[in-house]
Amino acid sequence: MKVQVLFFASLREALGTAGETLEVGEGCDVAAARALLAARRGEWQRLASPRIRAAVNQALVAEAHGLAEGDELAFFPPVTGG
């Protein structure tokens, strides 16, 4: 199945992309999708950090949240304010 993956803020800059369509297996959850992307090595390994948050269809979710065909999975670093 396919999910749309988006990257925000410093992740977008480090990875050199705002997003992509990712093919994942049935029953895939956020943790598995994150591991699939982080396995690309280099800057992609930033996604393995527990500080990087994930949202599915614009709602914050846990790592065990299951993905469905057409979901939007977004990753973003912690933000600071001031």
Strand order of the largest sheet: 2-1-5-3-4
Q: Work out the count of structural domains.
A: 1
Given this structure, which CATH class is correct?
A: Alpha Beta
Mean residue pLDDT? 94
Helical stretch tally: 2
The total strand number stands at 5
How would you characterize the largest beta sheet? Answer: 5 strands, mixed
The CATH superfamily is Beta-grasp domain
Instruction: Assign the CATH architecture.
Output: Roll
- Pairing-aware structural class of the strands and helices? alpha+beta
- End-to-end distance: 41 Å
The fraction of residues in strands falls at 25-35%
Protein name: Molybdopterin synthase sulfur carrier subunit
Family: Belongs to the MoaD family.
Keywords: Nucleotide-binding
Describe it:
- This protein has a five-stranded mixed sheet with strand order 2-1-5-3-4.
- It has helices at 10-15, 30-38, and strands spanning 2-7, 19-23, 53-56, 59-60, 72-76.
- It has 82 residues and is of the alpha+beta class.
- A hairpin with a 2-residue loop joins strand 3 (53-56) and strand 4 (59-60).
- 18% of the residues lie in helices and 27% in strands.
